[in-house]
Design brief:
single chain, 164 residues, Double Stranded RNA Binding Domain, Arc Repressor Mutant, subunit A, 4-stranded mixed sheet, two-stranded parallel ribbon, 6 strands
């Protein structure tokens, strides 16, 4: 059973989803990648994974949290999951290029594939795909919009263009 909650943040309302104890999604509610709430979904902001997600997001936006400690259960292909694991390893306040991300995910030379997997990241902010930038350090696509990507990097005081 999918449980969900809407979480209001300084950059918009997020739709958080969980199955069992694991967070399965964190989507910008006003963007095309957000799933439609299913008739069989249960709104339950008290579900442990959703409640904890909301708490940690408040801390992140309040400047008191630099990493997340949540039980994650994203669904995706083996390659997507490898990319998401590598994205989760990008330190707070740092950026990484799609090319380097592909290399770290075991697919050197596959920056476009890494970019596609990044675009399918179902757990925004917590799996910080906003920290992935173009080869020249420029901000490129982001499911929440490049303006939100810039805001998240600003919150983290990230050195855009200072590539890892």
């Amino acid at each position: 059973m999918i449980r969900y909650a809407r979480i209001v943040t300084p950059i918009g309302t997020l739709l958080a989803t969980a199955v069992g104890a694991g967070l399965t999604g964190l989507y910008y509610e006003d963007k095309s990648h957000a799933p439609a709430v299913g008739a069989d979904w249960v709104e339950d902001s008290a579900a442990p994974a959703l409640r904890e997600c909301a708490r940690q997001l408040r801390e992140y936006f309040g400047g008191a949290r630099k990493s997340f400690d949540l039980p994650l259960a994203p669904e995706g292909s083996e390659f997507q999951r490898k990319v998401w694991i590598e994205i989760a390893r990008i330190p707070y306040g740092e950026t990484l290029t799609y090319a380097e991300l592909a290399k770290r995910a075991g697919a050197p030379g596959s920056a476009r594939a890494a970019g596609a997997a990044t675009g399918r990241n179902p757990i925004s902010i917590v799996v910080p795909c906003h920290r992935v930038v173009g080869s020249d350090g420029r901000l490129t696509g982001y499911a929440g919009g490049v303006d939100r990507k810039a805001k998240l990097l600003e919150i983290e005081d990230a050195r855009v263009g200072a590539l890892v």
